[in-house]
Amino acid sequence: MVSAYATTDFAEDSLACSARGVDVMIDHRCLGPQFERRDFDHLVQVLKGGGVAIVPTDTCFALVGDALNQSVVQRVLNIKHRDNTDVPAVFVPGIESANRFVSISDAMGSILKRLLPGPVTVLLKPSNRAPQWLVGPDGLIGIRYIDFYSITELLKATGLLLTATSANLHGHSPPYEPGDLESHPVSKEVDVVWSAACGGLPQSSVVDLSSGRLRIIREGAVTSEELLNITREHQI
């Protein structure tokens, strides 16, 4: 992976979850070894039932929902006031799972293992099985594979692939702190808000690997120099 960053496990004191906000505001301190899992389980059921939630990530808070459900993805875009062509990236539990809908050659796979898991969005060509609502106007799909407690646990518990897009109105800054959520307009449009701490990293870097060569689209948590070092290592 490009860079290591702290993850939060669930080994914290067990406290009662607060029932406030849209449906339930889940405090990450509830996720201790002896806590009652009803709030997390509720979130899982909401997502499996086609709902949309705000959850913490390695960078900012994200809007997540079933990425393979077209109506859910459309709802995410509507919440963000985003054009239908500005499709979200997809959180995946591993590089292998992305093979379901993107084309990854052996050479690309070795590069991806250097980039991921980490704060990088990778653009790849869709496979024949890719849902068209995840394909952007450039003909590519963005994937995010991160090692961060909230996303890792939700991907595992739901068995879904989840939308990976910041929880903000299009053109506005995303929320990074739990305290930002209570008055945030997007919070009023979702089914569940998980108000735990984010990882605090800057926005993800975005790279295009669709041609087999790494092209930097946006510098973010991983610097351009770090990304260029990878291209030198792989002679791409």
Question: What would you say about this model in short?
Answer:
With 236 residues, this protein is an alpha/beta fold.
What's the arrangement of secondary structure elements?
Blueprint: E1 25-26, H1 38-48, E2 53-56, E3 61-64, H2 70-80, E4 89-91, H3 95-98, H4 106-115, E5 120-124, E6 141-144, H5 149-158, E7 162-166, E8 192-194, E9 205-208, E10 215-218, H6 224-233
Parallel strand pairs: 1-8, 2-8, 4-6, 5-9
Antiparallel strand pairs: 2-3, 3-7, 4-7, 5-6, 9-10
Question: Can you tell me about this structure?
Answer:
The protein is an alpha/beta fold and 236 residues long. The chain has a single domain (25-233), classed as DHBP synthase. Helix content is 24%, strand content 16%. It is built from 6 helices and 10 strands, in the order βαββαβααββαββββα. It has a 10-stranded mixed β-sheet. A hairpin with a 6-residue loop joins β9 (205-208) and β10. It is globular. It starts with 24 loop residues before the first strand and ends with a helix. Residues 1-36 have low confidence and may be disordered.
Count the DSSP helices.
6
Helix content: 10-25%
Could you tell me how far the N terminus lies from the C terminus, measured between alpha carbons in angstroms?
Answer: 17 Å
In the sheet with the most strands, the strands line up as 1-8-2-3-7-4-6-5-9-10
The helix-strand sequence is EHEEHEHHEEHEEEEH
CATH superfamily: DHBP synthase
The helix/strand class is alpha/beta
Tell the overall outline.
globular
Give the domain tally.
1
The top-level CATH class is Alpha Beta
Q: Give me the count of strands.
A: 10
Low-confidence segments: 1-36
Measured by DSSP, the beta-strand proportion falls in 15-25%
CATH topology: DHBP synthase
- CATH architecture descriptor name: Alpha-Beta Complex
